[in-house]
Specification:
Layout (H helix, E strand, L loop, with lengths): L9 H4 L6 H20 L2 H26 L7 H17 L4 H23 L5 H20 L1 H4 L5 E2 L3 E3 L2 E3 L2 H22 L3 H11 L1 H6 L4 H27 L1 E2 L6 H14 L4 H25 L4 H25 L3 H15 L5
Antiparallel strand pairs: 1-4, 2-3
Helix pairs in contact: 3-8, 3-11, 3-12, 3-13, 4-5, 4-6, 4-11, 5-11, 8-11, 9-11, 12-13, 12-14, 13-14, 13-15
Length: 346
Amino acid sequence: MRTGIYFEGYRTEEQLWDSPVSRAWMAIFVTAMISLPWWGSDYVLAMACIVGIHLIATMGLNITTGGAGLISLSHAAFMGVGCYAVSWFAGWGIPFFLAIPLAGAVAAAVGMLVGVPSLRVKGMYFAIATLAAHFVLSFLFREWTPVTGGPSGVNIVPAELFGFELTGDRRMFYPIYGFALLLGLGAANLNRSYIGRAFIAVRDRDISAELIGVNLLHYKVLAFMTGAFYAGVAGGLLGYFYGAITSEYFTFGLSVFYVAAIIVGGLGRVLGSVLGAVFMTLVPESLRLLSSATSSWLPSLATLLLPVGQVVFGVLIIAFLVLEPHGLAQVWARVRRIFHLWPFRT
Protein backbone atom coordinates (compact mmCIF):
# COMPACT_ATOMS: atom_id res chain seq x y z
CA MET A 1 0.00 0.00 0.00
CA ARG A 2 1.39 3.42 -0.91
CA THR A 3 2.10 5.72 2.02
CA GLY A 4 -0.57 8.39 2.40
CA ILE A 5 -3.05 6.70 0.05
CA TYR A 6 -6.02 5.13 1.75
CA PHE A 7 -9.60 4.29 0.75
CA GLU A 8 -12.82 4.86 2.62
CA GLY A 9 -14.99 2.57 0.52
CA TYR A 10 -15.03 -0.03 -2.24
CA ARG A 11 -16.03 2.50 -4.90
CA THR A 12 -12.89 4.60 -4.40
CA GLU A 13 -10.68 1.52 -4.14
CA GLU A 14 -11.98 0.15 -7.44
CA GLN A 15 -11.09 3.26 -9.45
CA LEU A 16 -8.93 2.59 -12.48
CA TRP A 17 -6.59 5.41 -11.44
CA ASP A 18 -6.69 5.39 -7.67
CA SER A 19 -4.34 8.22 -6.71
CA PRO A 20 -3.72 11.85 -7.73
CA VAL A 21 -0.27 10.91 -9.04
CA SER A 22 -1.60 8.17 -11.32
CA ARG A 23 -4.36 10.49 -12.58
CA ALA A 24 -1.81 13.22 -13.28
CA TRP A 25 0.45 10.86 -15.24
CA MET A 26 -2.54 9.58 -17.20
CA ALA A 27 -3.55 13.17 -18.04
CA ILE A 28 0.00 13.88 -19.28
CA PHE A 29 -0.02 10.71 -21.38
CA VAL A 30 -3.43 11.49 -22.93
CA THR A 31 -2.34 15.06 -23.70
CA ALA A 32 0.82 13.80 -25.40
CA MET A 33 -1.18 11.30 -27.47
CA ILE A 34 -3.75 13.90 -28.52
CA SER A 35 -1.02 16.29 -29.63
CA LEU A 36 1.08 13.62 -31.41
CA PRO A 37 -0.32 14.31 -34.92
CA TRP A 38 0.77 17.94 -34.57
CA TRP A 39 4.43 17.29 -33.81
CA GLY A 40 5.13 13.70 -34.87
CA SER A 41 6.74 12.83 -38.20
CA ASP A 42 4.98 10.78 -40.87
CA TYR A 43 6.96 7.70 -39.85
CA VAL A 44 6.09 8.14 -36.16
CA LEU A 45 2.40 8.57 -37.01
CA ALA A 46 2.38 5.48 -39.23
CA MET A 47 4.00 3.36 -36.52
CA ALA A 48 1.61 4.78 -33.90
CA CYS A 49 -1.40 3.80 -36.04
CA ILE A 50 -0.06 0.27 -36.53
CA VAL A 51 0.60 -0.05 -32.79
CA GLY A 52 -2.97 1.12 -32.06
CA ILE A 53 -4.45 -1.52 -34.37
CA HIS A 54 -2.27 -4.23 -32.85
CA LEU A 55 -3.27 -3.00 -29.39
CA ILE A 56 -6.99 -3.52 -30.07
CA ALA A 57 -6.42 -7.01 -31.46
CA THR A 58 -4.11 -7.92 -28.56
CA MET A 59 -6.71 -6.82 -26.00
CA GLY A 60 -9.24 -9.11 -27.65
CA LEU A 61 -6.96 -12.13 -27.57
CA ASN A 62 -6.05 -11.36 -23.96
CA ILE A 63 -9.73 -11.55 -23.03
CA THR A 64 -10.08 -14.92 -24.75
CA THR A 65 -6.77 -16.47 -23.68
CA GLY A 66 -5.66 -14.48 -20.64
CA GLY A 67 -9.16 -14.04 -19.23
CA ALA A 68 -10.94 -17.30 -20.02
CA GLY A 69 -7.94 -19.54 -20.71
CA LEU A 70 -8.94 -20.40 -24.30
CA ILE A 71 -5.90 -20.68 -26.57
CA SER A 72 -6.93 -19.22 -29.93
CA LEU A 73 -4.76 -19.51 -33.04
CA SER A 74 -7.34 -17.99 -35.40
CA HIS A 75 -7.16 -14.36 -34.26
CA ALA A 76 -5.71 -13.10 -37.55
CA ALA A 77 -8.51 -14.79 -39.47
CA PHE A 78 -11.12 -12.90 -37.42
CA MET A 79 -9.26 -9.69 -38.25
CA GLY A 80 -9.67 -10.65 -41.90
CA VAL A 81 -13.40 -11.17 -41.41
CA GLY A 82 -13.69 -7.67 -39.96
CA CYS A 83 -11.61 -6.15 -42.74
CA TYR A 84 -13.62 -7.72 -45.55
CA ALA A 85 -16.89 -6.86 -43.77
CA VAL A 86 -15.79 -3.20 -43.63
CA SER A 87 -15.05 -3.25 -47.35
CA TRP A 88 -18.66 -4.24 -48.01
CA PHE A 89 -20.16 -1.84 -45.49
CA ALA A 90 -18.10 1.06 -46.86
CA GLY A 91 -19.21 0.19 -50.39
CA TRP A 92 -22.84 0.32 -49.23
CA GLY A 93 -22.32 3.84 -47.89
CA ILE A 94 -22.46 2.97 -44.18
CA PRO A 95 -20.50 5.56 -42.13
CA PHE A 96 -17.22 4.29 -40.76
CA PHE A 97 -18.21 4.83 -37.10
CA LEU A 98 -21.04 2.36 -37.70
CA ALA A 99 -19.13 0.09 -40.10
CA ILE A 100 -16.39 -0.61 -37.56
CA PRO A 101 -18.70 -1.96 -34.78
CA LEU A 102 -20.71 -3.86 -37.40
CA ALA A 103 -17.51 -5.46 -38.67
CA GLY A 104 -16.73 -6.48 -35.09
CA ALA A 105 -20.23 -7.95 -34.78
CA VAL A 106 -19.75 -9.97 -38.00
CA ALA A 107 -16.44 -11.30 -36.69
CA ALA A 108 -18.11 -12.15 -33.36
CA ALA A 109 -20.85 -14.06 -35.22
CA VAL A 110 -18.23 -16.02 -37.15
CA GLY A 111 -16.45 -16.59 -33.84
CA MET A 112 -19.63 -18.07 -32.41
CA LEU A 113 -19.94 -20.42 -35.39
CA VAL A 114 -16.36 -21.53 -34.83
CA GLY A 115 -16.52 -21.58 -31.06
CA VAL A 116 -19.69 -23.56 -30.37
CA PRO A 117 -18.47 -26.85 -31.93
CA SER A 118 -14.85 -26.24 -30.96
CA LEU A 119 -15.61 -25.67 -27.28
CA ARG A 120 -16.70 -29.27 -26.90
CA VAL A 121 -12.97 -29.86 -26.44
CA LYS A 122 -10.44 -27.93 -24.41
CA GLY A 123 -6.75 -27.32 -23.97
CA MET A 124 -4.52 -28.28 -26.86
CA TYR A 125 -7.44 -29.86 -28.73
CA PHE A 126 -9.25 -26.52 -28.71
CA ALA A 127 -6.12 -24.75 -29.98
CA ILE A 128 -5.91 -27.24 -32.87
CA ALA A 129 -9.61 -26.63 -33.65
CA THR A 130 -9.01 -22.86 -33.86
CA LEU A 131 -5.96 -23.52 -36.05
CA ALA A 132 -8.20 -25.49 -38.42
CA ALA A 133 -10.69 -22.60 -38.39
CA HIS A 134 -7.88 -20.22 -39.34
CA PHE A 135 -6.94 -22.27 -42.40
CA VAL A 136 -10.59 -22.62 -43.44
CA LEU A 137 -11.14 -18.86 -43.25
CA SER A 138 -7.83 -18.21 -45.02
CA PHE A 139 -8.96 -20.49 -47.84
CA LEU A 140 -12.21 -18.52 -48.12
CA PHE A 141 -10.31 -15.22 -48.18
CA ARG A 142 -8.16 -16.50 -51.02
CA GLU A 143 -10.73 -18.37 -53.11
CA TRP A 144 -14.12 -16.69 -52.50
CA THR A 145 -13.45 -14.08 -55.18
CA PRO A 146 -16.97 -12.51 -55.42
CA VAL A 147 -16.81 -11.59 -51.72
CA THR A 148 -13.12 -11.07 -50.93
CA GLY A 149 -11.64 -10.24 -54.31
CA GLY A 150 -9.48 -13.34 -54.19
CA PRO A 151 -5.68 -13.01 -54.29
CA SER A 152 -5.92 -9.47 -55.70
CA GLY A 153 -7.82 -8.27 -52.64
CA VAL A 154 -10.26 -5.37 -52.32
CA ASN A 155 -10.14 -1.59 -52.22
CA ILE A 156 -11.92 0.13 -49.35
CA VAL A 157 -13.76 3.43 -49.68
CA PRO A 158 -12.01 6.01 -47.46
CA ALA A 159 -13.64 6.81 -44.14
CA GLU A 160 -15.54 10.08 -43.83
CA LEU A 161 -16.76 12.08 -40.85
CA PHE A 162 -19.18 14.96 -41.50
CA GLY A 163 -17.94 15.14 -45.08
CA PHE A 164 -14.29 15.23 -43.98
CA GLU A 165 -12.30 12.40 -45.59
CA LEU A 166 -10.12 10.48 -43.12
CA THR A 167 -7.16 9.48 -45.24
CA GLY A 168 -3.51 9.29 -44.29
CA ASP A 169 -1.78 8.53 -41.04
CA ARG A 170 -2.54 11.84 -39.32
CA ARG A 171 -6.26 11.70 -40.00
CA MET A 172 -6.66 8.01 -39.10
CA PHE A 173 -4.75 8.42 -35.83
CA TYR A 174 -7.70 9.79 -33.87
CA PRO A 175 -10.28 7.18 -35.00
CA ILE A 176 -7.86 4.34 -34.27
CA TYR A 177 -7.01 5.54 -30.78
CA GLY A 178 -10.60 6.59 -30.10
CA PHE A 179 -11.70 2.99 -30.62
CA ALA A 180 -8.64 1.74 -28.70
CA LEU A 181 -9.58 3.93 -25.73
CA LEU A 182 -13.22 2.81 -25.71
CA LEU A 183 -12.35 -0.87 -26.05
CA GLY A 184 -9.55 -0.55 -23.49
CA LEU A 185 -11.95 0.92 -20.93
CA GLY A 186 -14.39 -1.87 -21.79
CA ALA A 187 -11.73 -4.54 -21.26
CA ALA A 188 -10.59 -2.98 -17.96
CA ASN A 189 -14.11 -2.84 -16.59
CA LEU A 190 -14.94 -6.31 -17.93
CA ASN A 191 -12.26 -7.74 -15.64
CA ARG A 192 -14.04 -6.14 -12.65
CA SER A 193 -17.56 -7.33 -13.57
CA TYR A 194 -19.28 -10.62 -12.84
CA ILE A 195 -18.66 -11.66 -16.44
CA GLY A 196 -14.92 -11.14 -16.04
CA ARG A 197 -14.94 -13.05 -12.76
CA ALA A 198 -16.79 -15.88 -14.49
CA PHE A 199 -14.09 -15.91 -17.19
CA ILE A 200 -11.40 -16.18 -14.51
CA ALA A 201 -13.28 -18.99 -12.79
CA VAL A 202 -13.51 -20.89 -16.07
CA ARG A 203 -9.81 -20.30 -16.71
CA ASP A 204 -8.59 -21.40 -13.29
CA ARG A 205 -10.93 -24.30 -12.41
CA ASP A 206 -13.64 -25.01 -14.95
CA ILE A 207 -15.11 -27.96 -13.03
CA SER A 208 -15.28 -25.94 -9.80
CA ALA A 209 -16.80 -23.03 -11.73
CA GLU A 210 -19.51 -25.31 -13.09
CA LEU A 211 -20.24 -26.60 -9.59
CA ILE A 212 -20.92 -23.07 -8.31
CA GLY A 213 -23.31 -22.32 -11.16
CA VAL A 214 -21.17 -20.94 -13.98
CA ASN A 215 -22.48 -22.03 -17.38
CA LEU A 216 -19.24 -23.18 -19.00
CA LEU A 217 -20.44 -23.26 -22.60
CA HIS A 218 -22.13 -19.88 -22.31
CA TYR A 219 -19.11 -18.07 -20.89
CA LYS A 220 -16.59 -19.83 -23.10
CA VAL A 221 -18.54 -18.86 -26.22
CA LEU A 222 -18.95 -15.32 -24.86
CA ALA A 223 -15.20 -15.00 -24.25
CA PHE A 224 -14.42 -16.32 -27.73
CA MET A 225 -16.95 -13.98 -29.34
CA THR A 226 -15.60 -10.99 -27.39
CA GLY A 227 -12.07 -11.67 -28.58
CA ALA A 228 -13.34 -12.09 -32.15
CA PHE A 229 -15.23 -8.77 -31.85
CA TYR A 230 -12.04 -6.94 -30.88
CA ALA A 231 -10.21 -8.64 -33.75
CA GLY A 232 -12.96 -7.61 -36.19
CA VAL A 233 -12.73 -3.98 -35.05
CA ALA A 234 -8.94 -4.07 -35.45
CA GLY A 235 -9.31 -5.61 -38.92
CA GLY A 236 -11.82 -2.95 -39.95
CA LEU A 237 -9.51 -0.16 -38.82
CA LEU A 238 -6.65 -1.87 -40.65
CA GLY A 239 -8.68 -1.85 -43.85
CA TYR A 240 -9.47 1.85 -43.55
CA PHE A 241 -5.84 2.59 -42.66
CA TYR A 242 -4.34 0.85 -45.72
CA GLY A 243 -7.21 1.54 -48.11
CA ALA A 244 -6.70 -1.84 -49.79
CA ILE A 245 -6.09 -5.28 -48.36
CA THR A 246 -5.32 -8.80 -49.56
CA SER A 247 -5.56 -12.19 -47.94
CA GLU A 248 -1.77 -12.33 -47.65
CA TYR A 249 -1.85 -10.08 -44.61
CA PHE A 250 -3.94 -12.37 -42.38
CA THR A 251 -1.45 -15.19 -42.07
CA PHE A 252 -0.89 -17.69 -39.31
CA GLY A 253 2.26 -15.76 -38.42
CA LEU A 254 0.07 -12.79 -37.44
CA SER A 255 -1.87 -15.02 -35.03
CA VAL A 256 1.43 -16.15 -33.53
CA PHE A 257 2.42 -12.48 -33.24
CA TYR A 258 -0.63 -11.79 -31.03
CA VAL A 259 -0.01 -14.89 -28.92
CA ALA A 260 3.55 -13.66 -28.39
CA ALA A 261 2.28 -10.18 -27.51
CA ILE A 262 0.00 -11.35 -24.70
CA ILE A 263 2.70 -13.66 -23.30
CA VAL A 264 5.35 -10.95 -23.38
CA GLY A 265 2.98 -8.29 -22.08
CA GLY A 266 1.19 -10.31 -19.42
CA LEU A 267 -1.84 -12.58 -19.57
CA GLY A 268 -5.17 -11.30 -18.31
CA ARG A 269 -4.16 -7.63 -17.95
CA VAL A 270 -5.06 -4.65 -20.11
CA LEU A 271 -1.67 -3.11 -19.31
CA GLY A 272 -0.09 -6.36 -20.50
CA SER A 273 -1.90 -5.98 -23.83
CA VAL A 274 -0.60 -2.43 -24.19
CA LEU A 275 3.00 -3.28 -23.30
CA GLY A 276 2.98 -6.46 -25.36
CA ALA A 277 1.58 -4.79 -28.49
CA VAL A 278 4.06 -1.91 -28.26
CA PHE A 279 7.04 -4.16 -27.52
CA MET A 280 6.34 -6.77 -30.18
CA THR A 281 5.72 -4.09 -32.81
CA LEU A 282 8.78 -1.98 -32.07
CA VAL A 283 11.37 -4.75 -31.57
CA PRO A 284 11.25 -6.09 -35.18
CA GLU A 285 11.02 -2.52 -36.47
CA SER A 286 14.10 -1.56 -34.44
CA LEU A 287 15.99 -4.49 -35.93
CA ARG A 288 14.94 -3.41 -39.41
CA LEU A 289 16.09 0.17 -38.79
CA LEU A 290 19.39 -1.07 -37.36
CA SER A 291 19.89 -3.29 -40.39
CA SER A 292 19.24 -0.35 -42.74
CA ALA A 293 21.58 1.90 -40.78
CA THR A 294 24.48 -0.59 -40.88
CA SER A 295 23.99 -1.85 -44.43
CA SER A 296 26.30 0.73 -45.98
CA TRP A 297 29.34 0.44 -43.71
CA LEU A 298 28.88 -3.05 -42.20
CA PRO A 299 26.98 -5.19 -44.71
CA SER A 300 27.78 -8.47 -42.96
CA LEU A 301 26.01 -7.32 -39.79
CA ALA A 302 23.05 -6.04 -41.79
CA THR A 303 22.74 -9.39 -43.54
CA LEU A 304 22.78 -11.11 -40.17
CA LEU A 305 20.14 -8.82 -38.65
CA LEU A 306 17.58 -9.28 -41.42
CA PRO A 307 16.66 -12.91 -40.60
CA VAL A 308 16.91 -12.28 -36.85
CA GLY A 309 13.48 -10.69 -36.89
CA GLN A 310 12.01 -14.04 -37.89
CA VAL A 311 13.20 -15.75 -34.70
CA VAL A 312 12.62 -12.87 -32.28
CA PHE A 313 9.06 -13.99 -31.51
CA GLY A 314 10.07 -17.51 -30.54
CA VAL A 315 13.02 -16.37 -28.44
CA LEU A 316 10.93 -13.78 -26.60
CA ILE A 317 8.15 -16.27 -25.85
CA ILE A 318 10.62 -18.79 -24.41
CA ALA A 319 12.50 -16.12 -22.45
CA PHE A 320 9.39 -14.66 -20.85
CA LEU A 321 7.88 -18.07 -20.10
CA VAL A 322 11.08 -19.06 -18.27
CA LEU A 323 12.21 -15.79 -16.70
CA GLU A 324 9.00 -13.79 -16.23
CA PRO A 325 5.79 -15.77 -16.84
CA HIS A 326 3.64 -12.77 -15.88
CA GLY A 327 5.19 -10.58 -18.56
CA LEU A 328 6.10 -6.93 -18.78
CA ALA A 329 3.07 -5.93 -16.72
CA GLN A 330 4.59 -7.69 -13.70
CA VAL A 331 7.95 -6.03 -14.35
CA TRP A 332 6.22 -2.66 -14.38
CA ALA A 333 4.38 -3.54 -11.15
CA ARG A 334 7.72 -4.25 -9.47
CA VAL A 335 9.14 -0.94 -10.67
CA ARG A 336 6.11 0.92 -9.32
CA ARG A 337 6.41 -0.88 -5.99
CA ILE A 338 10.03 0.25 -5.68
CA PHE A 339 9.03 3.89 -6.11
CA HIS A 340 6.06 3.48 -3.76
CA LEU A 341 8.15 2.07 -0.90
CA TRP A 342 11.57 3.69 -1.45
CA PRO A 343 13.79 3.97 0.61
CA PHE A 344 12.31 0.95 2.40
CA ARG A 345 12.71 -2.64 1.20
CA THR A 346 10.05 -4.18 -1.04
